[in-house]
Design brief:
Elements (H helix, E strand, L loop, with lengths): L1 H32 L4 H4 L23 H26 L8 H24 L12
Helix pairs in contact: 3-4
């Protein structure tokens, strides 16, 4: 009984130590591999970021809302794929996965396909460029 308890305690401690290594390890590696004194040597200490190139223009530009709508459509179909890949992988392996389940998957895909219909009706796929006002 004591041997089992001690062994379980060793497993828990090893798991905690491994978690600590995975949590703190990247910070230690970055600290060891980080470049030193590059901003001071290049007289770039007034810049907010250092990428090796001189910044051109202002960083605050306005993006069209169309980009965000495309991102929402991407998220909708990423969720679709996340649910359909496991279904496709086990479709042949489970006995009794018949017509009823196929209809359920078809309804799921049809509902998610309404995202395309909605975006199409809203005119999202018509890319109208605004002329530059400079």
């Amino acid at each position: 009984m004591q041997d089992t308890l001690a062994l379980d305690l060793i497993y828990v401690m090893a798991f905690c130590l491994g978690g600590l290594v995975f949590a703190v390890g990247p910070f230690v590696v970055v600290h060891l591999l980080a470049a030193r004194k590059t901003r001071a040597y290049a007289d770039k200490t007034d810049q907010l970021i250092e990428c090796g190139m001189e910044p051109i223009g202002d960083a605050w530009i306005r993006y069209s809302a169309v980009y965000y709508l495309y991102a929402l459509i991407f998220v909708a179909f990423a969720v679709d794929v996340l649910f359909l890949i496991p279904v496709a992988l086990v479709y042949d392996r489970i006995p009794g996965f018949g017509i009823r389940d196929f209809v359920e998957v078809f309804i799921f895909v049809a509902i998610l396909s309404l995202v395309i219909v909605y975006a199409w009706k809203k005119g999202l796929f018509e890319w109208n460029r605004k002329p530059n006002s400079q």
